[in-house]
Q: What sequence folds into this?
C-alpha cells in the first residue's frame, strides 16, 4: 500500500473528502443501476406468475363447471 | 420544383392570413430582449458586451417556440396523412414546408434584429454580422427544429418536450452565430463564421429532411 | 451458417434470452472484479500524481464513466439504426436498455469531474471544452429519455427514439468540434490544466482495469435490462411461461 496508515488513506493529505465522496457516489450510482434491474426482474416474475396462476384456476373452474 | 413553390406559396399565404403565426415569435423576441436590461441593469457598456449572446439566444428560443406549430395544423386536419399515403416524394415537400416556415419566422426575426441591437447597445459594427448570421443561422434552426416538431407532433404535451430534444442540437449554430457578431464588434473579419454557418446549412438541408420524413411517418402511424 | 440465418437468430428474442443468460457471468464477474479491484488499486496502492496530489485518484472512476457514457450513446444509436433499417425488435429493446445506463454514467462523469476540479484547480465548475461536451451529452440523453416516456405506444416510442439517437450521433462530432472551437476562442489564460499527459505507466494500469470493468458493467446492465424487456414484451408466449415456472432456463 502506498499510504503508511489507514488514517492517511482516509485523509489523503486533505484530498480525502473529495476522493471518497466521488467513489461513494460512484458505487451508489452503479449499485442502484444493478438493483433497479434486479427489482424490475422480480416484479416481472411476480406479475407473470400471478397471471399464470389465474389462468390455471380459470381452466380448472371451466373443467369442473362442465361436469 | 414547381411543387416546392406551390407548397411554399400555400403555407406562406395561410400563415399571412392567420397573422399570429409570424407575429408572435417577433413579439416574443422583442419582449424577452427588453427583459434583459431590466434584469442586469441599464449600464450601456455591460449591455454592449452581452448583446451578441443575448440577441442570439433569444432569437434561437423564438425560432424554436415557433417550430412547434410547423406540422400541427396539417397533422390535425389529416392532410399530413394523405401526403404520406400518396407516395409522392417526401424530401422536397418537407423541405418546402420548413423553408416556408422560416420565411415567416426566421426571416422576420433576422430583419428586426438590428433594431433590437440598437436597444441593447450593440455597437454599429456588429449590425450586419447580426443580420447575416441570423439570416443563415435561423434556417439551420428551423430545419433542425423541424425534426423535433415532426417527432412530437402526435403528442399532446409537445411544447416543452420539443425544447428538450432540440436545444442540444442547436449548440453549434449558437456558437458560430454569436461568435460572428462578437468578432464583428471587435473589428475583425467574420466571414469564417458565416462560412461555417453556411456549411451547417448545407449539411442540414441535405440530411435533415430524411429524418423529418421518417419522424412524420412514425408520428402519423402511431 | 449463412449470414441471414445468423441474423435471423439474433433477431429472435427467445434465442437472445437464452444466449444472454449464458453470456452474463462472463460480463458480471469481470465487471465486479475489475471495477472493485481497480478502484482499490487506484485508491490505495498507486503513488499520487506529483502535480495534482491525491485528488487525481478520481481518474479511475471519472475516465471510465465518461468514456463508457460516450460509447453507450454510440451503441444506442447503432441499435436504433438497426431497428429502423431491418425492423429488428431486439435492437429496439437494446436501445431502450442502454439509455438509462448511459445517462447515469454521464451524470457520474460530470459529478466526479466537478468534485475533482475543486481540489485540483480550485473550482467545481469550469466551462472547459471537455466538461461542456459531457454536459451536452447528458442533455442528449435526457432528451431521449423524455421522448421515450412521452409516447404511450411502445413501437412508436422505439422508432422516435431511434431517429433522435441517430440525429444526435450525426451531430455529436459537429457539437464537440464547435465546442472545442468555442473554447479555443475564449480560453482564459489563468487556468492551466494538468492533464493525463503526465500520467505514469504504474498509474495507467489500474485505469485500464477500471475502463475494461466499466465496459463489462455496461454490457451486463444492458443484458439485464434487455432480458427484462424481452420477458415483458413476450409475456404471453409459451416459452416465457416455461422460463418462469422453471421448465426452461
A:
Amino acid at each position: 500500500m502506498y499510504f503508511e496508515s489507514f488514517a492517511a488513506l482516509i485523509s489523503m493529505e486533505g484530498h480525502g473528502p473529495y476522493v471518497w465522496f466521488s467513489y461513494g457516489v460512484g458505487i451508489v450510482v452503479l449499485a442502484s443501476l444493478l438493483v433497479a434491474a434486479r427489482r424490475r426482474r422480480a416484479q416481472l416474475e411476480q406479475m407473470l406468475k400471478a397471471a399464470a396462476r389465474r389462468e390455471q384456476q380459470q381452466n380448472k373452474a371451466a373443467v369442473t363447471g362442465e361436469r | 420544383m414547381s411543387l416546392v413553390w406551390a407548397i411554399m406559396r400555400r403555407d406562406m399565404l395561410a400563415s399571412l392570413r392567420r397573422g399570429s403565426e409570424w407575429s408572435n415569435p417577433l413579439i416574443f423576441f422583442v419582449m424577452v430582449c427588453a427583459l434583459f436590461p431590466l434584469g442586469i441593469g441599464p449600464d450601456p457598456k455591460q449591455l454592449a458586451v452581452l448583446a451578441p449572446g443575448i440577441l442570439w439566444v433569444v432569437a434561437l428560443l423564438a425560432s424554436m417556440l415557433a417550430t412547434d406549430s410547423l406540422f400541427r395544423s396539417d397533422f390535425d386536419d389529416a392532410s399530413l396523412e394523405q401526403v404520406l399515403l400518396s407516395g409522392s416524394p417526401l424530401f422536397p415537400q418537407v423541405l418546402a414546408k420548413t423553408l416556408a416556415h422560416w420565411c415567416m419566422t426566421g426571416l422576420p426575426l433576422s430583419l428586426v434584429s438590428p433594431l433590437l441591437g440598437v436597444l441593447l447597445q450593440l455597437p454599429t459594427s456588429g449590425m450586419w454580422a447580426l443580420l447575416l448570421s441570423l439570416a443563415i443561422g435561423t434556417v439551420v434552426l428551423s430545419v433542425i427544429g423541424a425534426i423535433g416538431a415532426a417527432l412530437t407532433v402526435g403528442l399532446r404535451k409537445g411544447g416543452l418536450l420539443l425544447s428538450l430534444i432540440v436545444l442540444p442540437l442547436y449548440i453549434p449554430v449558437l456558437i458560430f452565430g454569436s461568435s460572428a457578431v462578437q468578432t464583428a464588434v471587435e473589428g475583425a473579419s467574420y466571414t469564417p463564421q458565416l462560412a461555417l454557418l453556411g456549411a451547417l446549412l448545407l449539411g442540414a438541408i441535405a440530411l435533415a429532411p430524411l429524418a423529418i420524413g421518417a419522424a412524420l411517418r412514425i408520428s402519423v402511424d402511431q | 451458417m449463412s449470414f441471414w440465418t445468423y441474423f435471423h437468430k439474433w433477431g429472435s428474442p427467445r434465442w437472445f434470452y437464452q444466449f444472454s443468460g449464458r453470456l452474463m457471468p462472463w460480463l458480471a464477474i469481470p465487471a465486479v472484479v475489475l471495477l472493485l479491484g481497480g478502484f482499490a488499486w487506484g485508491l490505495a496502492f498507486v503513488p499520487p500524481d506529483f502535480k495534482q496530489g491525491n485528488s487525481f485518484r478520481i481518474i479511475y472512476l471519472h475516465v471510465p464513466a465518461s468514456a463508457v457514457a460516450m460509447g453507450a450513446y454510440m451503441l444506442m444509436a447503432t441499435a436504433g439504426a438497426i431497428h429502423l433499417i431491418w425492423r429488428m425488435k431486439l435492437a429496439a429493446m437494446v436501445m431502450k436498455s442502454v439509455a438509462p445506463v448511459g445517462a447515469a454514467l454521464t451524470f457520474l462523469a460530470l459529478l466526479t469531474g466537478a468534485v475533482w476540479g475543486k481540489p485540483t484547480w480550485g473550482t467545481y465548475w469550469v466551462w472547459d471544452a471537455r466538461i461542456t461536451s459531457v454536459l451536452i451529452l447528458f442533455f442528449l440523453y435526457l432528451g431521449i429519455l423524455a421522448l421515450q416516456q412521452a409516447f404511450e405506444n411502445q413501437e412508436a416510442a422505439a422508432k422516435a427514439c431511434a431517429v433522435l439517437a441517430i440525429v444526435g450521433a450525426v451531430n455529436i462530432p459537429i457539437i464537440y468540434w464547435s465546442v472545442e472551437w468555442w473554447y479555443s476562442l475564449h480560453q482564459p489564460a489563468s487556468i492551466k490544466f494538468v492533464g493525463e499527459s503526465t500520467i505514469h505507466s504504474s498509474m495507467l494500469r489500474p485505469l485500464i482495469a477500471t475502463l475494461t470493468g466499466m465496459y463489462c458493467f455496461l454490457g451486463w446492465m444492458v443484458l439485464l435490462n434487455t432480458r427484462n424487456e424481452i420477458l415483458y414484451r413476450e409475456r404471453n408466449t409459451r416459452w416465457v411461461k416455461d422460463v418462469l415456472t422453471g421448465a426452461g432456463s
In short: Chains B and A do not touch (no CB pair under 8 Å). Chain B has a mean pLDDT of 90. The CA atoms of residues 19 and 104 of chain B lie 10 Å apart.
